[in-house]
Amino acid sequence: MSQVHVQIQTADFDMAAEYASLSASYQTGAVVTFVGKVREINDGNQVTGLTLEHYPSMTEKALQGIVEQAQARWPLLSCKVIHRVGALALGDQIVLVGVASLHRDAAFAACQFIMDYLKTQAPFWKKEQTVNGAVWVEAKDSDTQAAGSWD
C-alpha cells in the first residue's frame, strides 16, 4: 500500500517541499504533479478572487476515497492531495495532486484520475469574485464527462 497524504488547509503549500516528499523513495521512477491556480478569466468573466467552502470531515473522507480508488487501479508508491479553502487571490495555488510510482504511465493516469474525480466528487463550493459581483461556480459538463471516462 502506498503512502497517502490528504490535507485541506487555508495556508499555501510549498511545491518544492511537496515534490521532495513524493520523491523520497529510491524506488520512485516517476513523479507527476498537478497544481490548480486561481485564474483571472473563467467562462468569459473577469475574476478578482475566489472563495472555497467545504464540509471538513466529509471533504477529507471523499478525497481519501478518491485516492483509495486510484491505489486500487495503479501501483502507486505515494500520493498527495492538498486542497486549499477560504479566500484566495488571483494567482494563488488552489490544489496539488501528486503521485509517485515506479513508472510514468501509472503516475500520469493516477494523477489525472484523482483530479477528474476531485472535480466531480469532492464536496467543495466555489464562489468567484468578479467585477460584476460574486458568482457561485456550477459544475461543468466537461468535468463530468472526464470523470465518466474512467468507468
Count the DSSP helices. 4
Q: How many angstroms separate the termini?
A: 23 Å
Q: What order do the SSEs take from the amino end to the carboxyl end, as H and E?
A: EHEEEHEEEHEEH
SS-based structural class? Answer: alpha+beta
- What is the average per-residue confidence, as pLDDT, rounded to a whole number? 94
Radius of gyration: 16 Å
* Outline: globular
The major sheet is characterized as:
5 strands, antiparallel
Strand content: 35-45%
Q: How many strands in all?
A: 9
Helical content stands at 25-40%
Poorly predicted parts: none
Structure overview:
With 151 residues, the chain is an alpha+beta fold. The chain has four helices and nine strands, in the order βαβββαβββαββα. The strands form two sheets. Strands 3, 4, 6, 8 and 9 form a five-stranded antiparallel sheet that branches. Strands 1-5-7-2 form a four-stranded mixed sheet, sandwiched between helices. Helix 2 runs antiparallel to helix 3 and helix 3 packs across helix 4. It is globular, with a radius of gyration of 16 Å.
Secondary structure layout:
Blueprint: E1 3-9, H1 15-22, E2 30-37, E3 41-42, E4 45-54, H2 56-73, E5 76-84, E6 86-89, E7 93-101, H3 104-121, E8 124-130, E9 133-136, H4 141-148
Helix pairs in contact: 2-3, 3-4
